[in-house]
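A student in our group prepared the protein record below, which I am reviewing. Here is the record exactly as it was handed to me.
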Amino acid sequence: MIFRLLVSAALVLLPLAGAAAAETAWYPVPEDSHPHDVAPAPDGTVWYTAQAQGALGRLDPRTGRTEQIPLGEDSAPHGVIVGPDGAPWITDGGRNAILRVDPASRAVQAWPLPDRYGPANLNTAAFDQNGYLWFTGQNGVYGRLDPRSGAVQVFQDPDGPGPYGITATPSGEIYYASLAGSHIARIDLATGRKTRIDPPTPSQGARRVWSDSRGRIWVSEWNAGQVAVYDPADESWRSWRLPGSHPRAYAVYVDDRDVIWLSDFGANAILSFDPVSETFTSFPSDRPNAAVRQLLGRPGEVWGAESGTDRLVVIRTH
């Protein structure tokens, strides 16, 4: 069964560093859905995980219409990305499974984790250069799914609980962040073994990661309220504290211009960071407690899910 809702969007214009203006718009989604992650689709629509309602949502920004596709008993979806096949792929903590939804038929396909690895508290996913989907589980695992054979392989993190954000570099390497472990890691794609990489700030709470076009890994440091970058070429680190008195960096995303985007729970805002001028620009929510937990985009657009207000937000750059 598919539920549909027609809504209207609010729009506001805000300045953006390096550009004349940016257009911010909000799109309501069904009440109490608590959208967690978003994934813009090739056709201009946007997928989102309705975590509190066990569904995958789809927004058409042209009309404001949303629909929600139930994902099955016990579903509590966390992450969603669009795969190389153009379909949404979901990390579902409630079902302890990786899911795929067919964009045309809305059919749901599931690959459960082996019973001995549950509940893994599945978080996020990324595809590598060989077509494998890699995923994280905050209870201390990470793993991969081969969509061709359906084989699921899970690895115990030797450093314990914490695997959270994950990203692929332009060359197809995979890095993830450990929130509880306060480090990032590179995965050997052949063996599955991790190489731990420690940021210079202790106990910083590395939450999410994203690669830029040069393969540098940007990290949102939740506890430290910082954004940091690791350069594998020389194994160097740099970090910048977000503006304000109590920053809490949750999501990080790097757009097609290599501008860095972050969600800041402390400021109730989305921030852009220009790594050339080393300046921040703030895009505050127009409602309190927005709680944007993930950011993703496509050229000219940065999307987030306001889990605290039951809305999706987009910043359109010009």
User: Anything to note?
Assistant: The longest strand covers residues 19-28. Residues 1-8, 11-20 have pLDDT under 50 and may be disordered.
